Amino acid sequence: MRKLFVFFLFLSSFCFSQSKVNPLPDVSEHREKIWVDSIYNQMTFEEKVGQLFMVAAYSNKDAEHVKSIDKLVEEYKIGGLIFFQGGPVRQAKLTNRYQAKSKVPMFIGIDGEWGLSMRLDSTYRYPWNMTLGAVQDMKLIEKMGKQMGKQAKRLGLHFNFAPVLDINTNPSNPIIGNRSFGENKEHVTEHALALMKGIQSEGVWATGKHFPGHGDTSTDSHHTLPMVNFSKERLNEVEFYPYKKLFKEGLASVMVAHLNVPSLEPRDGYPTSISYNVVTNVLKNELDFKGLIFTDALNMKGASNFKQPGDIDLEAFMAGNDILLFAENVPVALEKFCQAYNDSLITDERLEHSVKKILKYKFRSGLDHYKPIELKNLYEDLNAAEYEDLNYQLYESAATVLKKEEDNFPITKVEHENIAYVKIGDDTNEAFLNGIKTYSKITEIETDSIHLMLKNLQPYSKVIIGFHKADGAWKKHDFKSNELAILDSIAKHKDVTLAVFAKPYTLLAVKDFKNIKNVVLAYQNNTIAQTVASEVIFGAIGAKGKLPVSINTFFKVDDGFKTSKTNILAYGTPQSVGMNPRILAKIDDLAKKAIDGNMTPGMQILIARKGKVFYQKAFGYHNYKKDTKVTNQDVYDLASLTKILSTLPNVMQLYDKGKIKFDTKLGHMLPAFEHTDKKDIILKDLLAHQAGLQAWIPFYQATLDSTKHPSKKYYRKTYSPEFPLQVTENLFLRKDYQDTIIKRIAESPLLPKKQYKYSDFTFIILKEYLERTYHKPLDFISDNHFYKPMGMNTMTYNPLRKMDMSVIPPTEVDKYFRYTTIQGYVHDMGAAMQDGVGGHAGLFANSLDVAKMMQLFLQKGNYAGKQYFSEKTFDAFNNCAYCNVGNRRGMGFDKPQLSGEGPTCGCASMTSFGHTGFTGTIAWADPEKDLIYIFLSNRTYPDANENKLSKNNIREDIQKVIYEAISE
Asked: Which of 126, 178, 204, 455 is the most exposed place for a label (fewest CB within 10 A)?
């Protein structure tokens, strides 16, 4: 391919590449002038005119479209392309194709106001400008601009037609709205300036638009010519304000809108985009703008209704524009230019002014050393994990609490509340509903009938109403009349928190807010915005956003309460807590390895650090039939995790209150042991598994008949007062067998030598002790002491009494005791014989609720601002009392192995603690890394005998990856 500019490479040892150019590089004006003049002087008149055109291109159209662009590039020497709909890889390939055919490398631009996704699929989408207008930290906006610039450069783009500088003072504006940063000129300016700086810092040119100001229009210039009926003084004071500020900071280019502004252009209905008075006299002369000037798209009806293709292009150029965007007919336009030149309407000086300016910007874009786009890893580069991290920060910073009731927001004392959720709007709400269920028990109430809905809401103390509208910048977000009626009706009778997932102007339809206790504005309806809103409502994060526009007389610009944050688990990204997402991706491979190897049908994995859950995934299925996929809401049998998640924290509370000590003797704790050889065993030895107890007793075997089936002496198929202990669906044990279990433990022989021996007996004994102390069953104790106040909605014994079996993976096809598939009933035989409530087993939960309890431990007894036991108590129980004799155990907690194999990867600190479970579970926390790791599975299904999961070190290998991923 022949390119004129190659001839002049020897003139410059200073080399600009597309990957290393600054927005306004410190180039030698001499070298730049030589390059520009050399290109310009070899151009024909037609080639010079061709540089003025930036034609619309698509990567989702057919071969005929591609050929038409080929023709414009090769025959008419157009100067640039503005890409519209398509995909990034397709666009990159076409860009390389078109650039290869171009005599002088072309400008490539795109409308990327909220990122490349404004036009392209498979690319990253940032918040709308209106959402960003609520963000108070300009460093975040600049960082977003920088990322947008980086992505644009990677895709071979030279212009991002952003930021929008329109001050949206008209709430009914049909085309700007969400695209504006707000209605305050200072706020719009500071946000736009930050975005511009970020974009241009990556060597991509920013374009301020839509001059002279499209913010107070009531019609769409895509369809007609909107009127802006302000005086020039008002325009200069308000609409021009951001332009003047950004010009001083180096804004590269401006886009001129198609508007009817009588105070600037006296000709009736004459578009500003083709007005000499607007473009040249005002923009270039009065405002002294020296950068490139683009027309808005010339196919828009605001312009094309006024003049025909060709005529409109010529008129726009004559007005003072440099680049004619979206020219509809370049061949006709070229003829018009030739005729105008022959008629002396266009001078050489005028043409030279624009073309040389274009070439100068091409030189400064690095197009004197053009390089094709590298296609390898393009998709990955455009969707890097770091972009998700910034998006979280932006939505967290934008969330705005417009109204709140003192001492009633955020909602923290969840144990005292009965909360319902009502959805209005017509879009998805899954992330929000799951989010609020993270923090409290929530019941969703349908809105089929207002009368029935209000009746169903009667038992509830609070109602969260989510208004969800489709997340589109131009879509209607209005309340429907029936939705307003629902909101009004509930607010009159209940304590309502309204969460709005739509643009702020949606609230204009609400006539009165006096009955609505709390109002949270999330701005958009997507997964991150919904997650953040749920966190704000329950205090996992504090709100800090400020309203960018006014809402009638109720709320004004800059309204927004700063709310408090409590120390409960929140959500974040790996980068936000110093973790490397690329390394973490190995976990997915290990999970797949386990499932493919039939080590377990499925699993949940959760990792949290610094108080934020940054990895929470579900893999596989409930069983090997693959009929039910695992979700993060599913509830697993936790097996021995019960020891540290139920029994132990209750013992810690008694210790904290001085009710029990490490040297308290078993004979004093329980009468059944008072006259046995175990009477002098102290609590310390019990908890450390140093008491010399047997590992376990298969209690169930003594209750089987000669055929190895449940004996009628002990069991019935239906419930009765004499046989109340439910073992499975159709199996009930006699009520006095609990005493038999304790009696058999009391009578069991001690080991010959007092040494470390892991035993279930400790926690069976402690369950009995707790129940005697509190005169309540253990499930009631744990539920009221911990699970309810901590918002742990899935952690429970006997889950089938609270939830559907469909969310509980099975644990085994029992062929030796219960002779059925164990699903929703505890797998452990001893716990099953205790009505499903064991001190050593019996708990069910999802990974998140397990993580909450581990976070309580990490925070040394404090969660949501409530102290459950003292720091001193936690430290005492996390102590390895017998490490000196080779026993790694803490006081109830398991600890890292002292040598060889053990429960961890060998990379966790010695202050770390946790437990593993027979069903294929682990919960582990490391104070030194502020880290939590949860792995839940049903590896015992369908047969518990072979532990492939353990043999293949899956849990340990995942933990090793987690530690490898720590970057700070």
From this structure: 455
Nearest to 98 by CA among 125, 70, 119: 70
pTM of the entire structure? 0.92
All residues at 6 or more sequence positions from 248 whose CB lies less than 8 Å from its CB, including other chains: none
Cis, bond preceding 410 (omega within 30 deg of 0): yes
Q: What is the CA radius of gyration of the chain?
A: 35
Q: What values do phi and psi take at 561, rounded to 5?
A: -85, 140
Instruction: Tell me the torsion sign for CA atoms 779, 741, 920, 928.
Output: positive
The mean of the pLDDT values for the chain is: 95
Average of per-residue pLDDT across 540-562 = 97
Q: If pLDDT is split at 50, 70 and 90, which confidence band does 300 have? A: confident
Structure-derived torsion over alpha carbons of residues 245, 246, 249, 250, reported in degrees to the nearest 10: -140
User: CA-CA distances (angstroms) from residue 952 to 592, 598, 628?
Assistant: 13, 11, 25
Read off the pLDDT of residues 685-701 as tens digits, 9 standing for 90 and up.
999 999 999 999 999 99
Residue 920 has, within 13 A of its CA and on its CB side, a CA count of 35
How would you class 272 by CB atoms within 10 Å of its CB: exposed for 0-12, middle for 13-18, buried for 19 or more?
A: buried
d(CA 493, CA 497): 13
User: Is 8 or 185 the better-scoring residue by pLDDT?
Assistant: 185
pLDDT in tens, 800-843: 999 999 999 999 999 999 999 999 999 999 999 999 999 999 99
Closest CA to 134 of 557, 576, 564: 557
**In this structure, what is the dihedral angle of CA atoms 446, 452, 458, 461, given to the nearest 10 degrees?**
30
Per-residue pLDDT band at 7 (split at 50, 70, 90): very low
Q: Give the DSSP H or E segment for 796.
A: strand 796-797
- Residue closest to 247 by CA, chosen among 177, 323, 196, 201: 196
